[in-house]
Amino acid sequence: xxxxxxxxxxxxxxxxxxxxxxxxDGDGIGDLRGITARLDHLVDLGVDAVWISPIYxxxxxxxxxxxxxxxxxxxAFGTLEEFDRLVAEAHGRGLRVILDYVPNHTSDRHPWFAAxxxxxxDPLRDWYVWRDPAPDGGPPNNWVAEFGxxxxxxxxxxxxxxxxxxxxxxxxxNWRNPAVREAMLNVLRFxxxxxxxxxxxxxxxxxxxxERLRDNPPSPDWRPGMSPAxxxxxxHTMDQPEVHEAIAAMRRAVEEFPGDRLLIGEAYLPIxxxxxxxxxxxxxFHLPFNFHLISTPWKAAAVAALIDxxxxxxxxxxxxxxxxxxHDRSRxxxxxxxAQARVASMLLLTLRGTPTIYQGDEIGMLDVAIPPDLxxxxxxxxxxxxxxxxxxxRAPLPWAAGPGAGFTTGAPWLPLxxxxxxxxxxxxDADPFSMLALVKALLRLRRAEPALxxxxxxxxxxxxxxLVYERRHGGERFRIVLNxxxxxxxxxxxxxxxxxxxxxxLGRVNEPIGRTISLGPDEGLVIAxxx
Length: 531
Ligand code: NOJ
Ligand code: MG
Fold this sequence. Notes:
With 531 residues, this protein is of the alpha/beta class. The protein contains 16 helices and 18 strands. The chain folds into three domains: 7-104 and 178-211 and 238-442, TIM Barrel; 111-163, Oligo-1,6-glucosidase, Domain 2 (Oligo-1,6-glucosidase, domain 2); 456-530, Golgi alpha-mannosidase II (Immunoglobulin-like). The protein has helices at residues 7-10, 32-37, 39-45, 80-92, 111-118, 178-193, 243-255, 271-274, 292-295, 300-313, 332-336, 338-348, 378-382, 425-429, 435-448, 450-453, and strands at residues 13-16, 49-52, 96-101, 130-131, 152-155, 160-163, 198-201, 262-265, 287-288, 321-323, 354-358, 456-463, 466-473, 476-483, 489-492, 497-503, 516-519, 524-530. The strands form four sheets. Strands 9-8-7-3-2-1-11-10 form an eight-stranded parallel beta sheet. The longest helix has 16 residues, at 178-193. It binds 1-deoxynojirimycin and magnesium ion. 1-deoxynojirimycin binds at residues 62, 65, 102, 166, 202-203, 266, 327-328. Magnesium ion (MG) is lined by residues 23-25, 27, 29, 31.
């Protein structure tokens, strides 16, 4: 591409959670035909790539993150032919397709695990992490599972425990075994041959555990009400040095194929540790997901400091990325409120680095309260009442008013948002001031102005509640001014002259900038600078 930037550096990724995007057959579960039918929404929106959460055959203990066959499609989602059609239709529209790759674990129904657990001498025994009990017969050590309970599950038949970072239905693969590695790299090759443009790699920080099985130490930060898994610091179960070799091998497999295929890694880590996931000489992930906007307090000074720290920590040539939400985290509009969600989308789409938009955030969806009898997420079922459940962020996307909200003609697998008659894609499409209108305007502007995609990031700082920065490219210069507070305010414009290109309120276009910049409550501005 021009300027030597790859498509994914200029581009914007959109995450589809397939169960909840569009149902085509009335079973209440979104599917591949549904996604294909809605590709024009993504084109209209103005994104460049669609990342689809897992679609492989699965018992759905963790809704697809428990893969029982890496090279097929779950019947609830469709068929391989329908997948090929989706890819062709997406490519025909200039959209890239990114799949979810789940290397850390499989389903306990995967044939590999069935073989592995069948006997201690099975050739696949060592494909998973099996250990003898502790002398007292209990689990080999104190490791706990993310979704509750010991991370070790006793297997009566063969008299050993197996390790699972998540559910007991998600046994961890043993990446120390070269045969596992090769089999899992072949999974990448299978989909790359089918034309996919890249992968989002699941739970990469969990890929390898301490070989000596040392106990994890207690965490000083744990408080009642937090997940029991956080009682321990995951010193020996997460972010182990061996993970980087495995990532480099994934990258090499991807590079066996032509085109700029993309590898994004899911790793929830502090900034300094996250940077190692770019790999030595950038031979790791193109984009180790940066989730820090999700966890940083929504205050101008804190966000300014985060951006500076992240930019400063990037390895030379490392390309940044930003995320406001996904299928695991409370929605941005619920975290910071609908008015600030508009400011957040201006931030996301004007920062330097590849943005990922989670489905529904483009219409400002809120978390949907799920009555206890309708809870689906195993995390909530295992550890109820701690607010860990992810169903609220996985409610179906409302496309239109009316029964089923255009998502399904049947009974949706999770409740529709209660306000779907008012908040839906069609209604927002018809409203020139909607969140959807804002996101489209931001994406159009980002596409039109290279300064906003590939330009330099120049911090200005926080002035009270207002976050200020610039993007510059060639002679072009934009100043972004975000009121992260709910009171109107005025800040000096300095020597700046220019005019408003876009307001989160979608008014004020072309308004010239005087000696001061006035901002409404929760208002953000993109200012085109002159001179
Ligand atoms: C991270 C995924 O995003 C989440 O949904 C899943 O439960 C875990 N990894 C386990 O695969
Ligand atoms: Mg369906």
